[in-house]
Amino acid sequence: MPQENLKITVEQTNTAFQCASDDSILRGALRNSVSMPYECNSGGCGSCKFELVEGEVEELWPDAPGLSRRDLRKGKKLACQCIPKTDCIIKAQINAEIVPNVPKRISVTYKGKIQLTNDMAEFRFQADQPAKFLAGQFAMFTLPNIKGDRAYSMSNIANEAGYWQFIIKKMPDGKATHYLFNELQAGDELFIDTPFGNAYLREDNDRDIVLIAGGSGLSPVVSIARSITMNDVFAGRKVYLFYGGRGPQDICTPQLTEELNPLNIELVCYDAVSDEKLAKADNWNGPCCFIHELVEKKLGKTMPDYEYYFCGPPPMTEAVQRLVMIDYQVPFEQVHFDRFF
């Protein structure tokens, strides 16, 4: 069926935009610089809920975890999981801020990967156009014979040469990561839709910076660290990088940070592991705790003084969010993270 552009009107606002008939309402909005709220862009967080007032949509994932039973009873839908079939009128929240780097779908060629741990690697791709994104943002991957796009954060920085890099962790039962680690071959072509994400590096303040990551949440944090060390705007800052893994075999930050050349900043790195048995078996001499506990131990009462960027498994991001925003009352505008599930 040929693609057509359909009109999406946001009720009780002056906002309307064109959305392709094979695109989600959320992506259609973002491609037209309409800032609908979202985080994961994949059905998990529920940030992009809306109500369909008129028109018809196809729901890609009707049982997406981003919708509660109450949401379903009230007829709520997820903009990231709905494709318009007709012109639509919706009731949705629209943010005032401008969408940075309007997302588009591009072709990339796989160039290879660098193994970081037994189950985590940095994948490298090449496009025939500049790689435009902000440090901390992510891309949606379309993979062969796999239903639903997958979100992976960039680990490099924007560049004119068209290089794209992603730190990805292999999941035991993950179809997408099985394909990436075991079937993808050098020279293969994939499509990515990018950039997305609101937890990007800010340049509008002079605060010192705290980066916190767990698992493959390291990818956007590394992108931010790489960007900071190459941008004179951050000269003189102190940057803390906290990374947590289950065991010592998960810690790869020394390999990644040794390539940085932080001439203009002071970079301080802390690693922790959470499994005492694994720590003892590998003769780990570093901290053995959850990474948010180490953040509190090292920063303590000074926590409200920093700008925070963090990414990782939901339990980690929830613990960090409670720590900084509830326990230490860090202002909302100083805290940046996107939830992934």
Describe the structure.
The longest helix is centred in the C-terminal third of the chain and has 14 residues, at 314-327. The mean pLDDT is 95. Strands 11-10-13-8-9-12 form a 6-stranded antiparallel beta sheet. Strands 2-1-7-3-5 form a 5-stranded mixed beta sheet. The chain has helices at 25-31, 69-73, 175-182, 218-228, 253-257, 276-281, 291-299, 314-327, and strands spanning 5-10, 16-20, 49-54, 57-59, 76-78, 82-84, 88-91, 104-117, 120-126, 138-142, 150-153, 163-169, 189-196, 209-214, 238-245, 266-273, 307-311, 335-336. The protein is built from 8 helices and 18 strands. A hairpin with a 5-residue loop joins β1 (5-10) and β2 (16-20). It has 341 residues and is of the alpha/beta class. It starts with a strand and ends in a 5-residue tail after the last strand. It has 3 domains: 5-91, Beta-grasp domain (Ubiquitin-like (UB roll), Roll), CATH 3.10.20; 104-196, Translation factors (Elongation Factor Tu (Ef-tu), domain 3); 209-336, Nucleotide-binding domain of ferredoxin-NADP reductase (FNR) module (Rossmann fold).
